[in-house]
Write a structure and sequence with these properties.
254 residues, 39% helix, seven-stranded mixed sheet, 7 helices, Spore Coat Polysaccharide Biosynthesis Protein SpsA, Chain A, 13 strands, 2 domains
Length: 254
């Protein structure tokens, strides 16, 4: 039985520092599609220099829509969706190639191991945190609410054991920058859907986030990076609900 060909789909914006390593980890796939939203750096040039890679420039419609555009642009039935700051480990590569010899599922989920401020995070609820990324394209679509997207499969999903590496934040500053961007988008999307935030949400949800990640999910075992991650995750929760509250309670003009 001939193994099906595999495409890789990636979305990018100003990822010149990370896109090359992502593409290097995909040397074994049959096709790579990069959908770029008008990067101001060398992202497109770097991506185009890799074999089997096709670069498409598109306006930014949001995380979910852009990832579906990238998925639709692939030419093979099986597709592997990645972010520019993710890499396929050798163990995961070998496992994917093995299951593709005779696929028994319509999608495959894999554990994602996060590298956060010079340390691999093993707890905090961030590992294994399996993500569905390898799918039979005709049975899969990206869904969720921006900026949090989920690849959903209509059919059977099985688990793989090899890690998908996620080189998330290089510094606390970059984490703060993402919090600012993601919470703004999340609050606006929630507001459009008619969701509300109360004073209780703003005050208690961040506390619950910290307790869950640091104590219940054993974040304290990840040392100082684990503490920073849990604190900033609580701040992320606070900022999202505070911004949603503000959208429903705009200041009264004087």
């Amino acid at each position: 039985m001939t193994a099906p060909k595999i495409s890789a789909a990636i979305i990018t914006f100003n990822e010149e520092a990370k896109i090359a390593d992502c593409l290097k980890s995909l040397y074994w796939v049959d096709e790579i599609v990069v959908v770029d939203s008008h990067s101001a750096d060398r992202t497109r040039e770097i991506a185009a220099s890799f074999p089997k890679t096709r670069v498409i420039e598109r306006d930014w419609p949001g995380h979910v829509k852009q990832k579906n555009i990238a998925l639709d642009e692939t030419s093979n039935e099986w597709a592997l969706s990645l972010d520019a700051d993710e890499r396929v480990s050798e163990k995961l590569r070998e496992e994917i190639l093995a299951v593709m010899q005779n696929p028994k599922a319509d999608g495959y989920a894999m554990p994602r191991r996060v590298y956060y401020i010079n340390r691999w995070i093993k707890h905090c609820g961030w590992y294994p945190a399996r993500k569905v990324r390898l799918v039979k394209k005709s049975l899969a679509r990206w869904g969720g609410t921006d900026p949090h997207d989920t690849l959903r499969v209509t059919g059977k999903v099985e688990n793989l054991n090899g890690d998908l590496y996620h080189l998330s934040f290089d510094s606390i500053y970059s984490h703060f920058r993402t919090i600012d961007n993601f919470t703004r988008v999340a609050a606006q999307e929630a507001f459009k859907e008619g969701k509300k935030s109360t004073v209780i949400d703003v005050t208690l949800r961040p506390l619950f986030t910290f307790v869950k990640m640091y104590f219940l999910k054993l974040g304290f075992l990840d040392g100082i990076p684990g503490l920073i991650l849990c604190v900033l995750s609580a701040f992320h929760t606070y900022t999202k609900y505070d911004r949603l509250y503000a959208l429903h309670h705009p200041p009264t003009p004087k």
